Amino acid sequence: MEEKTIQGNGYRYIVDHILDSYEARVKVVAEVMRETTALLKRLSEEQAEMALHLRDVLAKKESLRKKDFDSLLKEIVVRNLDREKEVNEILEGFQIEQGELIARFRDILTGNEKIKLSDFRALSKQILERLDRREKEISDLLRSFHIEQEEVAASLRKLVEKGQQVRTRDLKTMIESLKLRRLERGGEVGHLLNALGKVQEEVKLRWEKVLQGYV
After folding, report:
1. Lesser CB count within 10 Å: N end or C end of the chain?
2. Rounded (10°) CA dihedral 111, 112, 116, 117
3. Is residue 3 part of a domain?
4. Which pLDDT tens digit goes with each residue over 126-176?
5. Has residue 215 been placed in a domain?
6. pLDDT tens readout for residues 26-51
7. Where in the sequence is the domain holding 76, given as residue range(s)?
8. pTM for the structure as a whole
9. d(Cα 212, Cα 90) in Å, to the nearest integer?
10. How many domains does the chain contain in total?
């Protein structure tokens, strides 16, 4: 007996449910990621402003040459640029990948790709597991970068608060402290990343509930 396809015998509405669930999940996850990257950009801009202020103060109070100041902060600046590039590339890859998966679901829905019901169940499970892994990879990356950015901003803020009393040795101490913190990474992430985890669980349960009725 020929096995049923997903397009036949009324099973098409299963794909409708799966596609709606998947698109909703990708949409919310993408929005959380956009908000998080916007937050990281604001932190980066705040850091740049504080660094310029400190450079001017130390140039006047300690005759620290601007190129020497820039040299001291070079490692932090370069690391931030590298991490920003990494984040942008990974997020772009995620959006392309999810777009391709949604396009494939649409091909199945419209009948452009014929697939057996049992194969569709297996495919749906594989796609969900892949999405889980990708979300975790990206959230871990954003979490790590967010913590670093918060630490740099907080450290620069403390130096700015010293006003005219800030010294070059304070800047050097800050830089060494940040290096140590990277080796002892820990702490909490912002509420945006926590929201990502909640959304992931909620939509995952919705997806699995749809599938369970047809296993």
Report:
1. N
2. -50
3. no
4. 777 877 788 778 877 787 788 888 888 888 999 999 999 999 999 999 988
5. no
6. 777 777 778 888 888 888 889 999 99
7. 12-210
8. 0.67
9. 32
10. 1
